[in-house]
Amino acid sequence: MEQESNKKSLDFIRAIIAEDIANNKNEGRVATRFPPEPNGYLHIGHAKSICLNFGVAEEFGGTCNLRFDDTNPTKEDTEYVESIMEDVKWLGYDWGERLYYASDYFQNLYDFAVMLIKGEKAYVDSLNADEIREYRGTLSEPGRESPFRERSAKESLDLFERMKEGEFEEGAHVLRAKIDMSSGNLNMRDPIMYRILKQSHHRTGDTWSIYPMYDFAHGQSDSLEEITHSLCTLEFADPRPLYDWFTEQLGIYAQRQIEFARLNLSYTVLSKRKLMQLVQDGHVSSWDDPRMPTVSGLRRRGYTPVAIRSFCEKIGVTKQDSVIDVALLEHALKEDLNKSALRVMGVLNPLKVVITNYPGDSSEELDAVNNPEDESAGKRKVPFSKELYIERDDFMEEPPKKFYRLSLGREVRLRYAYFITCTDVIKNEDGEVTELHCTYDPQTRGGNSPDGRKVKATIHWVSAKHSIKREVRLYDRLFTVAEPEGDKEGKDFTEFLNPQSLTVLKDCYLEPSLADATPGVNYQFERLGYFTVDTISSKNTKPVFNRTVTLRDAWAKVKGK
RNA sequence: UGGGCCGUCGUCUAAUGGUAGGACCCUGGCCUUUGACGCCAGUUGUAGAGGUUCGAAUCCUCUCGGCCCAGCCA
Q: Per CATH, which fold does A346-460 belong to?
């Protein structure tokens, strides 16, 4: 088995790392990092990166740092730092002592900048933002050199120090690298290293009035932490030569950056801006709305860390732009939940059933299996009595050909209970079915008939007087189309929002064992799907249940045809 | 059309010059006290054209198509 798993092909990044180790590069050391900017909540795309970076470290006996890329104080906040740490931990990864912040390196970075100025590799530019853009040229035309480009090192140094002292207003000057204004790679056209920002930083407060750009911080941060393999998404391939230029000019440890494709998921959006818009425009309740693809949203929905990690493993790592079918995510979820979730019975759309030949006010308890996939989960008792609720969908007055469930005159099994036969259909003045009268066969207690009689269907139920009434929220995909972004006719992604993404059911009847249900436990409501207690809406009130994902429903497919 | 990256079943992803395989989805069937799960079977693919080679998804050339870059964001 071990040999087999060794033979299993590695993705291109793991192949590179394996080769580096074989060549004793970095003395065989492997060090990665997960470097989020604390300006928002983590989503499933970040989970891919987390699983990759922490996963690689685990597999190759290396380390993985958690580093906050907090170089822009205008967007960052400790609230995000905390949620990010919570999410990474929840996914099951541990950075141990290896918690870093780019802001820890502000002094190092400043010193690096001074070195480059002294070496005439950087200069203070006093053009304004519009002028800099104009001088940068275009994709097909080279840029022009700034009139301040040949400013002396002494003058630049003086200005840079005064920028640091807060002597100038935002935008008055920037520090630029002196590289090549005619490069085909726009990132090399004298990129900005530092800008003046008179903003309080969530960690350094008002210590600094200049802040390094990401491009001048990330590579050096990797270098200072001696990251061997700096894994990032494809859009960072363009500035890679710049990072390499900085480390070379500075003569510091050079990490190797490797880019991979970011995750796209069907029927959702994954850009921070768009997720923000969904929250701000009230299309969802919050960042952790159970319909959101954020880690916190998925967690609240009932996703498990195991499922998310398994998903990340299944999708692989390549450089190809791709859209992963959300069905694969759901598959990974169901695979985990099928093994681990406790089975219970709950009726979402109740229809009353009276067992006419069952003795009036008596009741009894029947044995039910908690998890057929896991014997150690044991059994429980479920109460049975004369009046029950069954699912409205489980009865049809005029059943079509392949409908196996209850109808007038037909016998079905109540799971773990008895065979019942429908004898009467009670309707109101509008002709709606309000109640069913059935008879039960006492010989079939537990669900089997001594005469070997078979029924075609087994349906779930709850005892009316023993059941608990609870609110259940049904979630569906947020968008009606697979790729809501980048519509060919230029429609905004919000035009594809699914108006049915949330259905609230107030009057659901659940078996009494669910009275103690606590958040964080996954249940399978038999024949319906997986559900979990909502963490937010269940505080100081009766628990509310979220439907995590439905079960496969063969009847729904037949019916649909 | 400057630079960078990428094209393998519907969707992901293997095959690193030697039988194009797996997963998801889908379709049948079996099993079933969940129309679940499981099991079995099946459909479908190397963007195109040349070239090199005994042999090409893989190497070369060209064509076509897609993604990213002109923030004092990351």
A: Ribosomal Protein L25; Chain P (2.40.240)
